[in-house]
Amino acid sequence: MFGFLARRLPSVVFMLLATSVIAFLLPRLAGGDPAQTIAGADATAEQVAAIRVELGLDQPVYAQYGRWLGDLLVGDLGTSLITSRPVGQLIMARLGSTLELAIAATVLMVVLGIGLGILAGSIRKGAGRAGLDGAVSVLLATPPHVTGLILILVLGITFNLLPISGEVSVLRDPLVGISLLIMPALALALPQAAMIARLIQARMYQVRQEEFVDLAIAKGVPPRRIVLSHILRNSMGTAVVATGIRVGELLAGAVVIEAIFARNGLGLMAVDAVSSRDYQVVQIVVLGAVVIAVLVHLLSEILLAALDPRIRLQ
C-alpha cells in the first residue's frame, strides 16, 4: 500500500501545483482591475496607480505568483483586496454553510446512486427496468440548477412541503436546518447519483457475463446470493471511483445552487469576489475546491486498492 501511495503522490503534487497556477491566472485573465474597484469610478489615474503599487499589482505576474505561493506554503491565505480582511476569516465565516450542503449532497449522492444502480442492475427486463432507465436518463440530462428549480416548483410551491430558500445551521436548529437543506442537497446530488447508478448498472451487466457467475448459476446458487456475493461485490469498485470523481463536480455545482436557494456559503462568496475582482479570495476558493476534489479522489483510489489487490500490483 505504501508503494502504491508513493507512486500516486508525485502526480497529486504536480496536479495541485498546476491548479495553483491556473487559480492564480484565471481572475487576472477575466479582465478588470481591483485597484479601480477600490478607488471608485471617479478616481484619477494617479490614485489608481498608487493603489496598484500598494497592493503589489504593479509587479510582474510571476513575481506576484511566487509571493502568493510562498505565503500559501506557510499558511498565509492572504488578505482580501476589497474588504482588507484576512481571506481565512472570510472563508471560516462561510465554510459551515458549504460543508453542510456538501456533506448532505454527498450522502444523498452515494445512497441514491448505489441504490438505483443496484436496482437497475438487478432487474434484467420488463417495465420496471424501462422505467428505471428512463428516470436515470432524465436525471443525467438535467443540470443541478434546473433540478433545483423543479424541486422548488414541485416541493416548495405546488405541495408546500419544504421551505423554498433560506439557511439555518443544522447544529443550531436541526429540524429547521435539515428542512432547508433537503432541496439544495437533492438538486446537487440527483444528477451525480444518476451517473453513479448508470456506471454501476453497466458494470453489473459486464460482471453478469463472467464465467464464475455462470458457474454459480449451474451449481444452483440462489439468484439473490449471486447478485449480492458475486455480481455486486465485483462491481463496487466502479462505485468507489465514480464517487471520488463526482465530488469535484458536486462542489462546482454548489456555486449555482447556493445562489438559487439563498445560502450564504463559499460559492456565493466566490461569485461576489469574481464580480469585484477580489483576486485573493477567488484564488483560495478555486484552489481549495480542487484540493478537496483531488484528496477525495485519492482516498477513493486508496479504498479501491484496499478492496482489489490487483490495483496495488499495477
From TrEMBL:
Membrane-topology annotation of the record: Multi-pass membrane protein
Pfam family, one: BPD_transp_1
SUPFAM superfamilies assigned: MetI-like
Keywords annotated in UniProt: Cell membrane, Membrane, Transmembrane, Transmembrane helix, Transport
Keyword hit for DNA damage: no
Primary site of residence: membrane
Highest taxon, organism lineage: Bacteria
Subcellular location: Cell membrane
Transmembrane segment boundaries: 12-30, 101-123, 135-162, 174-200, 239-261, 281-307
UniProt domain ABC transmembrane type-1: residue ranges: 95-303
Assigned protein family: Belongs to the binding-protein-dependent transport system permease family.
Annotated protein name in UniProt: Peptide ABC transporter
